[in-house]
Design goal:
The protein is mainly beta. It has 1 helix and 17 strands.
């Protein structure tokens, strides 16, 4: 079942209505104990077709002084480039490109911190993703309704042009309103070849990058 939500309140309002995948499976997930995955070496080679927008080594560095500001403000000021936050490089969203027909994204929820429901949002350019028998251009995988592991299959609109997908984190606030890109929302990204871990902070309170932890593996 696909549910339509009104536009989110955010610093980057994309406008319009977004389709949300709210029932991929009737099973409820018993979340595993959250564990940090060992940090990968910064020297790991990352192919150009799978990347965080703007390479990490181009992120502005002010020695961590920017931590007095909120992440959303810094990301807006950087025009979408990643920003330094203490010892971390933080991104507003992540892009996967070069997905040919039949390529698979295996998305596994490793950690969700209650009480707020968390979501991994996906937006397609040049086609759609098939999830649970539905071809969708924009998807929200919500922690309170989806199984811990979801498989999405690329369905490009053209054989000559592969699909690209942007990913970011969303959450529902205490009033049930879908939020994104406000407060201290952002992602720390660890990647190696066609495998990545997204460590997400929602915008509520201080930045903590374990509100939602998702592992994404690409099979091309």
């Amino acid at each position: 079942m696909v549910e339509t939500h009104p536009g989110r309140q955010s610093a980057h309002d994309t406008g319009g209505m977004r389709q949300r995948l709210t029932e991929v499976d009737t099973r409820r997930v018993t979340w595993r104990v959250c564990k940090w995955v060992e940090h990968r070496s910064e020297s790991t080679r990352v192919p150009s077709s799978t990347r965080a927008l703007i390479p990490s080594d181009t992120a502005p560095d002010d020695g961590g002084k920017n931590m007095k500001e909120q992440l959303a403000e810094l990301l807006v000021a950087s025009h979408g480039q990643p920003v330094k936050w203490g010892d971390h490089v933080v991104h507003g969203f992540y892009e996967i490109s070069g997905l040919a027909a039949g390529a698979r994204l295996t998305i596994e929820f490793l950690c969700v911190v209650p009480p707020l429901p968390q979501s991994l949002a996906l937006s397609c350019k040049g086609g759609r993703l098939e999830v649970n028998g539905q071809d969708l251009k924009e998807i929200g995988l919500w922690s309170d309704t989806v199984p811990a592991l979801v498989v999405a299959v690329a369905r490009p609109a053209s054989r000559k042009r592969p699909l690209s997908v942007q990913l970011w984190n969303e959450w529902r606030d205490e009033d049930g309103v879908v939020q994104a890109w406000i407060g201290n929302a952002g992602m720390i990204i660890e990647e190696e070849e066609d495998h990545m871990i997204l460590r997400c902070s929602n915008g509520e309170g201080e930045a903590t990058f374990d509100d939602l932890v998702v592992e994404v593996t690409i099979t091309r």
